[in-house]
């Protein structure tokens, strides 16, 4: 059972300007609610009871907002002194996360569910014997706010490999993964991207994926935010 999560909330949100000139990206509103509340609601619905949130840019605003929530339990990993990127941020938070596998959730990832709950299926697919990390993947062709060529190819077993240069890949990382603490063994010091550890897991065939059933929205820019609003409103009409 995965009962702990980390939300990556410390980024500068430069691509979301001018909205992030006055608030941190986690407090940007989508469909009337902040991005971090969308994330916390979904995490709580999946049965997770403890959440670590890292803070850096406009940290006081984010901390003040989080105090208004009574559940799940929220702990703060303070990066005011140094922004550590995704990998370094998780390493700093490991003492708060504990020694069991945990969820890692980007704050700018939202989706319209298909059948069932994607987080619950992700948790149900976790196998700590075979996996160092398990990613939630979306179809690149149908995603909102994504303009790349895909991130990964997935074998029938779920094992992932990177997209080769100048070749399209069907799946894009949907901003959510489960990680075993051993993924961070001998991790670099200071700021670094989680991609370094994922590449290491790929070499040992211990990076796996499972497919999101629904429409994934990467809310990384004001334009993507507006498009996501439209998709959510259309879903309500349906």
Structure notes:
The protein is α/β, with parallel strands linked by helices. It has one domain (4-237): Spore Coat Polysaccharide Biosynthesis Protein SpsA, Chain A, CATH 3.90.550. The chain is built from 6 helices and 13 strands. The strands form 4 sheets. It has a 7-stranded mixed beta sheet with strand order 5-4-1-6-11-8-12. Helix 3 (85-97) packs across helix 5 (194-203). The longest helix has 16 residues, at 222-237.
Which terms would index this structure?
238 residues; alpha/beta; Spore Coat Polysaccharide Biosynthesis Protein SpsA, Chain A; seven-stranded mixed β-sheet; two-stranded antiparallel ribbon; 6 helices; 28% helix
Span between termini: 34 Å
Number of contiguous helices: 6
Percent of residues in β-strands: 25-35%
Please tell me the overall pLDDT. Answer: 93
Order of helices and strands: EEEHEHEHEEHEEEEHEEH
The strands making up the biggest β-sheet line up spatially as 5-4-1-6-11-8-12
* Tally of domains: 1
Write down how many β-strands occur, each being a DSSP E stretch of 2 or more residues: 13
CATH names the topology as Spore Coat Polysaccharide Biosynthesis Protein SpsA, Chain A
Radius of gyration, Cα only, in angstroms? 17 Å
Q: What would you say the CATH architecture is?
A: Alpha-Beta Complex
Helix content: 25-40%
Please give the largest β-sheet. 7 strands, mixed
Shape label: globular
Uncertain parts: none
Name the CATH superfamily assignment. Spore Coat Polysaccharide Biosynthesis Protein SpsA, Chain A
Class inferred from helices and paired strands: alpha/beta
Reading off the top of the CATH hierarchy, the class is best stated as Alpha Beta
